[in-house]
Amino acid sequence: MLAAELKKITKVYPGGIVANYEVDFDLRKGEVHALLGENGAGKTTLMKILSGCLKPTSGFIYVEGERVEFRSPSDALRKGIGMVHQHLTLIPTMSVLENLRLGLVGQRFDMRRMLTEVEDLSRTLGFKVRLDSPVYALSVGERQRVEILRLLLSKARILIFDEPTSMLCGPEIDRFLALLKSLSYKGYSIVLITHKIREAMHVSDRITVMRMGRVVATLDKDEVRDESYLVELMVGERLVPAVANARPSHSKEALLTVKNLVVNDDRGLCKVKGVSFELYAGEVLGVAGVEGNGQKELVEAIAGLRRPVYGEIIFERKNSYSGRMNYIPAERMELGVAPTLSVAVNSVLRRFDDEEFVERGNFLNFSKMNEFAKRVVSFMNVRTPSLKTPVKYLSGGNIQKIIVGREILTPSEVLIAEQPTAGLDAKSAYQVRKALSELASKGVGILLVSSDLDEILELSDRIAVISDGKIVKIFEKEEADPVMIGSYMLAGEGLGHNVRATVSTD
Amino acid sequence: MVSVEIVVGLLYSSVSLLTPILLAGLAELLVERSGILNLSLEGAMLVGAFTAFMVAFYTGSLGYAMLAASIAGVALCMLFALLTITLALDQMVTGLALNLLTIGITSYFYRASFGWYVSPIPPHVETTLQPVEIPVLSQIPILGKVLFNHLPHTYAALALVFLSWWLLFRTESGLKIRAMGEDPQTADYLGINVNLTRYALLVLEGGIAGIAGALLSIGYYNMFLDNMTQGRGYIAIALVILSRWNPLLLLGAAFIFSFIDALQLRIQAFNVPFLPYQFALMLPYLFTIVLLLVAGRKVKGPASLGKPFKKSR
Amino acid sequence: MGITLERRFLLIRAALALSTIGLAFFAGIIIISSVGKDPLQAYYWLFQGAFSPPAIPETLIRATPLLLISIGLATVFKARIWNIGAEGQFYVGGMVTAILSILLKDAPPSLAFPVIVLVAGLGGALWALPPAILKATYGINEVITTLMFNYVAIYLVSYLLHGPFRDPVSMFPETETINPALWAPIVVQGTRLHVGVLLAFAVVVPLAYFFLRWTAFGLKLDVLGSSARTAQYANINVTRLVIQAMLISGFLAGLAGGFEVLGIQHKMRLELSPPTSPYGYTGIAVALLGYLNPLLIALTSFFLGGIINGSMTMHRMAQIPVGMAGIIQALIIIFVLASYFVEDKLAKKAMERLKLW
């Protein structure tokens, strides 16, 4: 019996990009169905269509054999389809209870009944949530569980998860996958969007592989002979090579020294709790950790965007390069670019004090600016009608390319790279990784903050694991091992859970 | 020695002057909670004052005057909604422009009706709104005099304080309003009609602000003067900031302000020799700035306040 | 390809600006007809009073304070700092000028005149400083504070004109007439065109154009206006920039007030600004209609200055209330804003057609 079925789904985005082409997909009742593919293969688009977030350009959707058309996510939810996105849809300033309540707007509502249901569900699924706690005080894993709870409360029978483990790690991942299994035993039908083969093999009953907007194969798990077969299906012939990371051992000359740094977030919660490290010339220091463990605040403090509560940041301007600290921020639109200004201006955004573009402290040299902008555009293959075009009219990927290109091409001593390849196509991402590696070879110190552990392992000379605002361990490249790193990433998280759990029982 | 009479009188007029600013502030508070910063509150009060006066002057009916004032306020706020919600224009500049528009329009039509040279006694209405004495309660010594002999609108405004607190924090609509003020994208995702709700709140604000303006022209005075709101709408917005978007605190902030206003009027009336009346007139404005400086520093409002929301497909 | 796209957008912008003005006048027709007057006749007098050859010098005189004020406003508006306190800054500039002219009436004019002009500007800048500091350091909404400061300024001036500086022989609250030796020199004989008009159009406009377009200062304002967080990221000292921009804005408004006293009124009066279209508020329309570009603002200030004068002629000859000018200005602002919306839509369409994904 099919829970849902998609037939001949085609999705063309306004820019003309074809995200899905004549895709067929079906979901059986009570199964876990993995939707496997590389970034940009069209998995998320397909599931956004099933969950009512996007309208297909053509094609049909059937739920329990009945043809349906969704105009909004809440339409789909009424038919029992709910999706947990990568960006959670909770409101941080509101309490867990209020957020749960928000999932039920427009329905007959009985507070007592909801509380009983929450209690029942939490017990059967092994959740512990404090209903009156504001969401911003929860860990990412807890938030995810609140989001799931909300879908279950609104009677969703089909649950779609978009890369749910990308913000989790180690034991938390296992715990989550076990939860998926138990949900499926209870009769929920589950789609798991992922690019991790092991995860798909571990938990799913069937696997559908997508590549470049099309379904390549749908297999029962038992049909899969070995994992390399799935790899082949996923990537076809086009394999992106790993960046050669054979730098001579870096010097011990510290470019950047951070001592006992304590930083608060916007709400005054302490997010960085005494961090110390040194960044050496010519190395890539990777910072690994679950999102929300203080990376953002740490980086902002180092970049001078946030005032630390305590501690020191020593950045010695050596003469090797221009003595700059460059910074690729994770937040593109509101921080990395001035959206209404031109590609040219955005290419020199952080250099208004630079003699090269601003003569005698105040007079702009437009021809030099344009020259540099041209270099950025050609280096990253930015697609723009002209250098004068306001960047807000470019696509997200092209904006990202401008930021990365600018920060890489501007000579620097230290480069902080926060999620530098997020949102880029495979080819550009490879080029960025290569460029970062080359910069390090030339003596630049690079602080790489990424939620993509593979990227960190590929590029870093040393890997600092951050957990609950503290650096719990720094690995040398040779001793780095994903499983070990994972368990350190959770050191602080686990502690947090225990504390909260004890509080919630009284 | 300060006599009890003077203090009672001062408190009485504080409560009385509280009404328009509190009404306007409450309406703006609800709108801001949904993420819209509506500077044209000032303009809505001004058209309310003007319309109420005109209708009262020509028909003699205060009821019609009030009704017309709120309709005029609604019309202006609908225009604001059209420009800032549907066309997603900058809320700050749009609000400013609409205020300039209302100053021009009210002055134009006032003069078109009564001529350029307004005689020493400007046209005025014969009857104004009258206070309603609440039986029994008004007999309580001191408190009765201060609290229970006011315009019906004063009682309504006080009730509205609690009503809007209840709406915001105890009802589903309030939950929706607060959610869209924090994150309209998420609210939209959860099936809340953000734009429709914001339109509805602006209609409410227009109606209330129109009535608040009407109180000025046919409640406290009996005439209309150019730009007679004198920045009261902007002050109401400042008080909303001070209240940290909480109706109960707004009541406090508005009372402090109206107390200063009442004090200022006393100073003018008593003609204190060392304090020229212009300084008295300045007081409410200076006081608003001081209040903002003391309590309005780096106050965090609803996260999406003032940002245009574009629905994504 | 690129160049044609940009050219096309310049043309679209020009067309939008013109249709904005057209729409405002069309709305004016409705408003005039609604009180039973003949709009064509009214507009005839409007243009006679505004742009007929004999009216041109007076229009330039009206345009001068508008020009100075709106160039200052363009400076802050670029950074999306909404200073609506130009009116108060203008009055403070005027008051300071009158006081200083009375105090320095026996000083050598060639020395006193530039000092007075400078101090007028400084007075305006000083009046803009508290809201600037509150905005820059505490994030307090500048619209509210600058507006509050307008009322404070007007009442302060009113006090000074009724009290300490009142001309005892005048019936009105105004200062005595200042020493003619200190009046701003007339540059075209037979008109009231004074040196301030020349300074505004021939010096301030090109200078402002250069500074806003060719310097890091102007670019920083653009970045701040585009996104406040980005400005911080771009290593811009936002606090200092906000204060600098507000000071410039206040200085120019104060300067406008100074020249209005030295060149036109020759005394400080309560109605230094025309009551139905105060310069400080009209300047907002001038700056926005001029797309915050000083060269265009020179044109739009002339245009709106003409509307102010024309509306007075229209009132005299056709009994249309003067408030008409205010309505047209506000409508222009609204239509300019709406035209931003249209422009954005068109740009997005054009980009979609280019298929750059």
From TrEMBL, chain A:
SUPFAM superfamilies assigned: P-loop containing nucleoside triphosphate hydrolases
Instruction: Name a Pfam family for this protein.
Output: ABC_tran
Coiled-coil intervals, chain numbering: none
Concerning PROSITE patterns, the annotation shows:
ABC_TRANSPORTER_1 (PS00211), ABC_TRANSPORTER_2 (PS50893)
Q: Which part of the chain is the ABC transporter domain? A: 4-237, 256-493
GO MF, one annotated term: ATP hydrolysis activity
UniProt keyword terms in alphabetical order: ATP-binding, Nucleotide-binding, Repeat, Transport
Q: List the Gene3D superfamilies hit by this protein, alphabetically.
A: P-loop containing nucleotide triphosphate hydrolases
Q: Which PANTHER family match?
A: CARBOHYDRATE TRANSPORT ATP-BINDING PROTEIN MG119-RELATED, GALACTOFURANOSE TRANSPORTER ATP-BINDING PROTEIN YTFR
Can you say what this protein is called? ABC transporter domain-containing protein
Q: Which organism is it from?
A: Candidatus Terraquivivens tikiterensis
TrEMBL record, chain B:
According to UniProt, the name of this protein is: ABC transporter permease
Tell me what topology the record assigns in the membrane. Multi-pass membrane protein
| Entry-linked InterPro entries | ABC_transp_permease
**Principal place of residence:** membrane
Annotated Gene Ontology cellular components are: plasma membrane
Which keywords label this protein?
Cell membrane, Membrane, Transmembrane, Transmembrane helix
What PANTHER family is this protein classified in? Answer: ABC TRANSPORTER PERMEASE PROTEIN (PTHR43370:SF2), SUGAR ABC TRANSPORTER INTEGRAL MEMBRANE PROTEIN-RELATED (PTHR43370)
Which top-level group of life is the source organism from? Archaea
Q: Where in the cell is it found?
A: Cell membrane
Q: Does the keyword Membrane apply?
A: yes
Membrane-spanning ranges:
6-27, 39-58, 64-85, 92-110, 151-169, 199-221, 233-260, 272-295
Q: Name one Pfam family in it.
A: BPD_transp_2
Q: Name one GO molecular function term.
A: transmembrane transporter activity
Automatic annotation (TrEMBL), chain C:
Q: What is a single molecular function from GO for this protein?
A: transmembrane transporter activity
Q: How does it sit in the membrane?
A: Multi-pass membrane protein
Provide the alphabetized UniProt keywords: Cell membrane, Membrane, Transmembrane, Transmembrane helix
Listed name of the protein: ABC transporter permease
Q: Where in the cell is it found?
A: Cell membrane
Q: Does the keyword Acyltransferase apply?
A: no
- Gene source species: Candidatus Terraquivivens tikiterensis
Q: Does the keyword Acyltransferase apply?
A: no
Q: Which PANTHER family match?
A: ABC TRANSPORTER, PERMEASE PROTEIN, GUANOSINE ABC TRANSPORTER PERMEASE PROTEIN NUPP
Cellular component per GO?
Answer: plasma membrane
Q: Which residues cross the membrane?
A: 12-35, 88-105, 111-129, 141-161, 193-212, 241-264, 284-308, 320-342
